Amino acid sequence: MSTNVHLKFLFLLFFSSSLWDSHAQHVPGVAAHNSLKPGDTLNSSSSLNSPNGRFMLRFYLWPAAFGTTNYTYLTIFRTSDLHLVWYTRQGIPITNEFDLLTLENNAGSLKIRRHCDNPIELSSSPQPTNNTLAFLLDSGNFVFNEVYSNGSTKRVLWKSFDYPGKVLLPGMKLGVNQKTGQNWSLIAWLTDDYPVPGAFTLEYSGHQLIIRRRGVVYWKSGVLRGNEFENISPKVTSMYHFNVVSNGNEESFSFMCKNGSQESRWLFTSTGKLLGDDPQPIAQADKCDRYSIDGGCQRWNQPQCRHHHQHGYTVELNRGYFVSEDDSSYNISDTNLGISDCKVSCWGNCNCVAYTSLFANRSGCKFWTNISNFVPDDLTYLDLVYILSRKLSHSGKFPLSVSMNNRQDSNLNNISWALVMRSIFTCTEQTQSLKMI
Ligand SMILES: *[C@@H]1O[C@H](CO)[C@@H](O)[C@H](O)[C@H]1NC(C)=O
Ligand SMILES: *[C@@H]1O[C@H](CO)[C@@H](O)[C@H](O)[C@H]1NC(C)=O
Ligand SMILES: *[C@@H]1O[C@H](CO)[C@@H](O)[C@H](O)[C@H]1NC(C)=O
Ligand SMILES: *[C@@H]1O[C@H](CO)[C@@H](O)[C@H](O)[C@H]1NC(C)=O
Ligand SMILES: *[C@@H]1O[C@H](CO)[C@@H](O)[C@H](O)[C@H]1NC(C)=O
Ligand SMILES: *[C@@H]1O[C@H](CO)[C@@H](O)[C@H](O)[C@H]1NC(C)=O
Ligand SMILES: *[C@@H]1O[C@H](CO)[C@@H](O)[C@H](O)[C@H]1NC(C)=O
Ligand SMILES: *[C@@H]1O[C@H](CO)[C@@H](O)[C@H](O)[C@H]1NC(C)=O
Ligand SMILES: *[C@@H]1O[C@H](CO)[C@@H](O)[C@H](O)[C@H]1NC(C)=O
Ligand SMILES: *[C@@H]1O[C@H](CO)[C@@H](O)[C@H](O)[C@H]1NC(C)=O
User: Fold this and answer.
1) Residue nearest to ligand 9 atom 12, measured at CA
2) Cys-Cys link to 296, which of 123, 144, 231, 235 (CB 3.0-4.6 A)?
3) What is the pTM of this model?
4) What parts of the sequence cross the membrane (predicted)?
5) 307 falls in which pLDDT band (50, 70, 90)?
């Protein structure tokens, strides 16, 4: 009896010391360094690795964006390039207690414990049990299983693949299961820098991929036929094998790389682009302008004033400033709004001629109504302003107008980089910067 207890203690000691040692995976015969057994905890300075070392689970602190609360997320990173592949959708507000966060496998439940607040329960089994195991699979799926005493799986209690964020990994599902009520969809961030849920969602229904913006359908892939989607380039689809489940209970979609690579990742950006492994995007809902149906774009209602000569309006990104703003500008200070919301709001107001984000972290909206007040100027410290102009008219163009996407993307990279640099200081263990987009 006492020997038993002693062995158990030794085992736990061995187990917990090997668990956090990243070199342990290279030592033959060292087992279970990739799992949390009952009573084990993962703290904010340790990580859990998949057996093949390809994925890593850890707490990650996002620095407060401009003076607001710092948030921590339980995250999964791909180790080869430190790209983020999964995160809890809800952030945990942190003041100065980052060190005291733990993930625990305890009495049949998997929970995140904070210093004094109530724990956040990710999963709990119906009855208390000591036969549970949490581990990170080679696919990047973090699972919490009930196991038999011989170690084999009795049932899956919880898995991270059921809670996708903005990344789709090989084997991760999109779709619905009517029987369990499970619903898998991607939700893009409000801005590319901060994990706040944004305006765009990607779902699979009616045998096709659908991108919505605040519920309005912007883009459809067309029905999947013989591993091809009508509105996705065959060059892109030829890289993948699509797996569809379609029965009374479940309608779902997932992909695998034809060459067997597990390094693939589909990324859904804050502007509604779906990026895969090819430089050519899978979908570009940001290009959908309500007029054309090219590439799967959908048409939707718009005010009469925007139907100019049947060709409509376009948006150009310019650098510059407005003079005498007071009587010709207005704003919406709602920090849940992103730039796509500003565009839609400006579009819907026939007096609106230009818009941009209100706050430095790219939330909120600012609008202008008198374009004569705009002074284009290429000084880089000036704001970028989105200007609505008629498609066929050249009179409304400014000499500095640039390709919207090029300018926007390079600017986003700069901003992201600045945030990444800040993050390095909050994660002293990092030797490489973590990529958040
Ligand atoms: C985190 O866990 C590791 C391994 O169990 C331990 O060595 C370390 O002291 C813990 N850190 C904190 C802040 O509790
Ligand atoms: C963005 O900035 C505004 C104003 O400073 C702030 O209220 C808001 O919480 C910030 N949003 C995020 C996600 O940090
Ligand atoms: C957020 O985290 C940073 C870096 O750890 C820290 O300097 C700052 O005080 C924190 N801010 C808040 C509001 O807790
Ligand atoms: C789980 O293990 C702990 C410590 O060994 C024990 O006190 C507890 O009763 C066990 N719970 C169950 C449900 O078996
Ligand atoms: C483990 O135990 C369960 C239940 O007793 C049994 O169904 C299963 O076949 C066993 N698995 C192995 C690998 O022995
Ligand atoms: C799936 O969940 C999202 C978010 O909770 C919801 O908006 C959507 O309507 C759901 N879709 C289905 C088909 O249940
Ligand atoms: C396999 O395909 C993926 C994308 O589908 C690509 O990123 C990767 O480079 C390919 N690997 C090899 C060895 O061809
Ligand atoms: C937004 O508009 C209101 C009302 O005009 C004004 O008081 C406020 O200062 C503006 N906010 C910003 C951040 O410019
Ligand atoms: C727009 O601004 C110009 C230049 O400041 C001014 O002359 C004109 O009256 C303004 N138009 C309106 C409708 O306010
Ligand atoms: C991004 O940063 C580079 C190097 O600092 C700079 O040359 C470039 O102009 C910046 N781009 C934007 C859009 O600010």
Assistant:
1) 370
2) 231
3) 0.80
4) none
5) confident
